[in-house]
Specification:
By secondary structure, this protein is an alpha+beta fold. The protein has one domain. It contains 3 helices and 3 strands, in the order E-H-H-E-E-H. A hairpin with a 2-residue loop joins strand 2 and strand 3.
């Protein structure tokens, strides 16, 4: 299982919410494909209010979770980029 806290969103919460809407709507098939290609069985993210500002907490489960971020960075897949 992998768990990541992303950089503060500062004033980008609206952008984050629009991205999540795309990922759960129009791009849901692409997200499902990405998870399958990278051997993830669960991929979830939440906004987290912290003393350093609003951040994103991301959970990745599956046999590919330990290498997901590294493999994503190396991927040539259009969506992954």
């Amino acid at each position: 299982m992998g768990f990541v806290i992303a950089n503060p969103l500062e004033n980008k919460v609206d952008t984050w919410e629009a991205w999540i809407e795309e990922c759960t709507g129009a791009r849901s098939a692409v997200i499902k494909d990405m998870n399958q290609r990278h051997s993830l069985t669960r991929h979830a993210a939440w906004l987290a209010e912290t003393p350093m500002g609003t951040m994103v907490a991301v959970l990745q489960e599956g046999s590919g979770s330990d290498s997901f971020m590294n493999m994503l960075g190396k991927s040539t897949n259009e969506f992954d980029k």
